[in-house]
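cron nightly-structures :: item 1 of 1
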Amino acid sequence: MSYGATEAKIPEIADAIVEITETGRAIRQAGLRIIETILESYTEIVANPASFAEPAKAHAMGQLKTCSTVRSPRAGRCS
């Protein structure tokens, strides 16, 4: 079992890994290559209709949506 930085352990402990990656950059930087895409997925935000009807909660959900879809250097720093 691994709790992060899986690609750094490959040569020492495994022949192959299944990794969830968005870009594959860290895998390539570790000198590895992706040989097969098993699954492509997407993220969904599911809201309780009663909660979404409350303006403060709907606003918070909107911020979550913005932070999860923005592709910029600041995307990782949404708060």
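cron nightly-structures :: done
The helical segments are 10-13, 25-29, 49-52, 55-69.
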